[in-house]
């Protein structure tokens, strides 16, 4: 049952005087439930209780945190039907996507639980060579974390998404600033987490869920002295503003913001020649998936001009032209989409590849593709901005040198893709690939950038403005590294050391023992 | 031979119109050599050549970078006598310290070389379970790094210090902003690096050394768009200002600043009782080592009030009272020391444990210790500021609860120390230890905080303001992690993968292969 209230350390709280409602994107109507915005008292209570919970939660064993995470996954599954119903109501995303994202969410929570049970993620290092000091270091949780939910992933990047799961895994309490577009979905997920907190006897302050439509609520959370780090998924403007705000604190804290990207795709001649229809179809799918509302949406395709590129563009236009209109996440997202798209369309020197005629009605959208020569693309900086939605630009480069120039002038990106059917061609274009590599967090060969696998090797992040800190990923197991810091113990008595560092290795984890990775005792 | 010029990518450059001289701290006189401050053209040239060098240096093998680092160490050794002569002239630190720091500097350069030869530091992760995408990630260098030399470590934290060595190891070109107090030492070290660049055929832009007394030179370096990260060792004000400045850039970059700390030492009752004279003598040494000019200088000793603490204070005062005056690094450092010390001395409610009578002359200083009760200490925030020099405060707490309260109110610290002779006492004071742990990067048992071992497990960093990013250390092998970011390769052809990720593991490194740490091929 949805109450519209904040959940603070296990208790419902609706003391604020400001309320808001979510919108049904399909009809444009407001949903009936009122949500109470968190006020300053509630913000303080949530953070202070998180800080108090930290004093015990930080010392819980990996196994007990694994049990907690697994209980969250199970509680989510118990509420699956209700969650899916609100998810589709609030986001207009289709049920198939909802089920897929739901499974990914519980899957990644359980993956973090497995990581905790295995235990080596704490990166234990023991240096105790003869004649030297005995020094041992291990990763320890940093303290209360604030997580901002994302509009486009109500489950996998929101209340119980990757940021929350990784922070809880690390040993950090979490205060979620729920995304106002899917507050009901968020409340149901928060209830599942709260149930799991009770069931597994965790300190109640370990999780709170706060509602807020006003940006100030997020800003206050970021500025709260007891908050030690922030996870954010959203726009470049929003993420950068919070990052810069956190830097002005008396004690600055990191803001790990995963933001915008146009995800350049370099289509090399052999791919145009040998796989034209295949890639046209694949990219028609990737560009329109989720109405283009993915951070890994391919917004920029690059090729060398000529008959083969023209033919590919034509095939792409045809494949995309057959797509149906689909609903966007929110009327505001639709209007921002149109605004940004039309800004780009107002630039000179491009050709329409495919355009919606007529424009889709209401909150629905149809894909829109344009083509432009590299010179014009580089001359008009606005061509490079991310247009969040089903919009892509094909850039025609005169030659390899100009292709390199375009890539060199790109901002940081989450992904970069290369399509090719020929190994010697890859050698020929090695500079292109090297330049692309410096711009991205993930390189993809012969694939599409949408579809971010949750695994240990994933990097979902990249040079600014793809993310605020290219050292870290918000997807995959190493996402946990954002919420820990190393502490070294010098000459510390064995009985007082964290288990990960004790002589006899009671956790049976892999440790760096004087340079050797081993499970051996000291 | 000292030229007073900047060294930019192997060439001497002295085009600027501003010059300065270093000072002989013992006499207070200026040394004869003029040093040319870098101007904007020189800053641009150094950074742009670093950026150009990056396009090849980033792809050099670990082995070739190891050869380069070892050549730096050897070149330094060839110039050892001249370096030591200028080091002692410019810093007034004794020859024994100079030799020790020299050996540490070449030792840590060679330790990074060994790390490169072994190769596993790149943290290769391969996820390719059946039915999933093949994704592989590896740490890659981020680009040109600016390193600020430190006043108190002309070798180990300056031109060829840990920041430079770790950045060069990572594959990042380095532009050093030399510390103006030891510009001649810096120039000699820079010449050794330049020789090593030539000898091993590295791209010349991989290293430059710029002089500057004016803060603006450092600020311009931090704001240069081609600079991708900054290493800094120095004051809280200086480091925080650069950190905040970097955050205002169009593309924000990380500033890893290792700054101030008072390094609290908790002296538990059994240590007072059983090891009074031993610890009094040890701490007299630690407080006065290098005239107290260490970032790990113990500026704060905490104990439970009573006859035993009083007796310890008396013994400490006696041990310290026997110390000779020693010379500080620079007249400015002496005057800042006196200013900050006298600010603290002007606070109410403390007792003098030992004070210099008469005050040491010129640029020399004698240690100064005061004792204060915990209540007054907490009431007057200024008691907590770092006084860079041979000054320490002993805080008398009424009981364990008050000791905890003092620790809870401390800012972040590089180190925290516990002295105890009794295991059950450690249990009794476990909350004290836990609170201390949250404040520090390194915990020390029965030791002194000065003397930072260079090893894989070292953490020299801590919660703000000890450093700007508590995730990283500026000493020890993991210092390299500041200069890299992970890149993931999805479905990437084996021949094009970095060697660290290739199927047959040609580097023979330990990799995380689907969760198992192994040297096995894929």
Assembly type: homodimer
Tally the helices of chain A: 16
Strand elements of chain A, count = 23
Mean pLDDT of chain A: 96
Tell the overall outline of chain A.
globular
* Most extensive interface: A-B, 74 and 74 residues
What summary fits the major beta sheet of chain A? 7 strands, mixed
Task: Briefly say what this structure is.
The first copy, chain A, has 522 residues and is α/β, with parallel strands linked by helices. Helices cover 38% and strands 19% of the residues of chain A.
Task: Draw up the topology in text.
Two copies of one chain form a homodimer.
Chain A: E1 6-8, E2 11-13, E3 19-20, E4 35-36, H1 40-57, H2 62-78, H3 80-91, H4 95-118, E5 125-127, E6 135-141, E7 145-148, H5 162-170, E8 174-177, H6 183-199, E9 207-210, H7 215-223, E10 229-233, H8 236-247, E11 255-258, E12 264-267, H9 269-274, H10 276-288, E13 300-304, H11 307-321, E14 326-327, H12 331-345, E15 350-354, E16 364-365, E17 368-373, H13 374-379, E18 391-397, H14 400-408, E19 413-419, H15 423-428, H16 430-439, E20 440-445, E21 484-490, E22 511-513, E23 516-518
Parallel strand pairs in A: 5-22, 7-8, 7-10, 8-9, 10-11, 12-13, 12-19, 13-18, 17-18, 19-20
Antiparallel strand pairs in A: 1-2, 1-9, 3-4, 5-6, 6-21, 14-16, 15-17, 22-23
Helix pairs in contact in A: 2-4, 2-6, 3-4, 3-6, 4-5, 10-11, 14-16
